[in-house]
Amino acid sequence: MRRRFTVIQKSCGWTGVYIKMSERAGTVQTEALFDKATDLQKKYKNYYCKEKGIRRTHIMGAVAIAALYMPLSEMIGKDDAVDLIAEAMTSASVAKNRKIGRLPPSVFMKIAGLITGIIFSEKAGFKRKWHCNTNHEKRYDLITFPYVETFDKLGCKEVCTAVCIQDDISFGNMKNDVIFERKGTLGRGDKCCDFCFRIKSNDRSDMKAGIEMGLFKKYVSQTRKPEGFLGKMMLNGMNNGHAKMADWGMSYLKDISPKNIAELGCGGGRNAGELMKRFPDSHLTAVDYSSLSVEKAAEYNKSTVDAGRCTVQQGDVSALDLEKEHYDLATAFETVYFWKNLVNCFEQVAGILKTGGTFMIVNESDGTDKASLGFEKIIEGMKCYTAQEIGTALKKAGFSEVRVFHHRKKPWIVVIARK
């Protein structure tokens, strides 16, 4: 990457957007985009140059986001620009969630009280109303918010949703028995940004509420069938976050030259594109249950779709509407977790493959790692299968040769079967 970004720019998603846009539009257009963003950031310096302390930091952050959003929205549209900036900021929020989730509940509540009094103070530009401030619960509303005010002055209030989602991801579903609850935000058009942190009690109803509350659950549940704003974020995250694992899996596709490929559960389309690069003489059919995934995958692979090398369509793996015994290779990256009746789905895959065809499954979870098993309790319909369970189902579905490969350090697995 050619550019160097400031700490403020990095925290506001500039690095992630630069990488994504370089892949999407090329280096020349991306450089031009960031030249405009940098110029705008300098132009809007007067919004914070006379401010001091934390208020200055808040406004500098809002200006950095707005300066990037404006030329980006002109290039790819407002909705996609908001989604891309939100996704670029999400990785830091997930890391924050993991870090603060390790704090003991009593320590977290003390820190939350102290930080709230500093970061969200009137000096920092906030108007705050407390409802509860005890050792077991912190509940307050933010009536005014420097980010919202700055975005409003700059005429881009819609980008505030990219900031709002970060709180939900940062504080949602923490592993330290602290529950985060929220009903609305200023950026989404509500009267205030409400915050509620409370220590989970032993009451079962509280435990259930703690699991179900917050957008974190809604966000991670988008892995099953991406829809709406959160679905767009998830698809962008899938393309970037699973890239290393997917490439590791593809490295096991040796000594084959498939002419026809079926990419099942294609998500945002990144892996379909990589498969076509690896096999330049192939035609690929990408299939997904989600209409939003179909839209995003087609957009991601627009050049190959236009060239006739790629077809993207909506479909259900439990009843595949694809030509029988036509494909040399079928792939499934991070998707069999949601396939109901695994043997039936594998029989469907076997039906579209030629004799001797290859079916490759790549999973981030080997069905035993605690982190992934924890998501089974959050995401409806998710099942983390072990390599043995997958292998048994494949053989019942009619596949003969089944090979399993494990990553040396991570719980990633590749399962390759022959028809």
Describe the protein.
The chain folds into 2 domains: 7-213, no CATH class; 235-418, 3-Layer(aba) Sandwich (Rossmann fold). It is globular, with a radius of gyration of 23 Å. The chain is built from 18 helices and 11 strands. Strand 10 (402-406) and strand 11 form a beta hairpin. Helix 2 packs antiparallel against helix 3 (27-43), helix 2 packs across helix 5 (78-100) and helix 5 packs parallel to helix 8. 49% of the residues lie in helices and 17% in strands. It is α/β, with parallel strands linked by helices.
Question: How many domains would you count in the coordinates?
Answer: 2
Approximate shape = globular
Alpha-carbon Rg, integer:
23 Å
Model regions low in confidence, pLDDT < 50 over at least 5 residues: 202-215
State the major sheet. Answer: 7 strands, mixed
What is the CA-CA span between the terminal residues?
Answer: 43 Å
Structural class of the helix and strand makeup? alpha/beta
User: Strand portion, in percent?
Assistant: 15-25%
Order of helix and strand elements from N to C terminus: HHHHHHEEHHEEHHHHEHEHHEEHEHHEE
Walk me through the topology.
Layout: H1 7-11, H2 14-25, H3 27-43, H4 53-76, H5 78-100, H6 105-119, E1 127-133, E2 137-144, H7 146-153, H8 160-171, E3 178-181, E4 193-199, H9 204-212, H10 215-220, H11 228-241, H12 243-250, E5 260-264, H13 270-278, E6 283-288, H14 291-300, H15 302-306, E7 310-314, E8 327-333, H16 342-352, E9 353-363, H17 370-376, H18 387-396, E10 402-406, E11 413-418
Parallel strand pairs: 5-6, 5-8, 6-7, 8-9
Antiparallel strand pairs: 1-2, 2-4, 3-4, 9-11, 10-11
Helix pairs in contact: 2-3, 2-5, 3-4, 4-5, 4-7, 5-8, 5-11, 12-13, 16-18
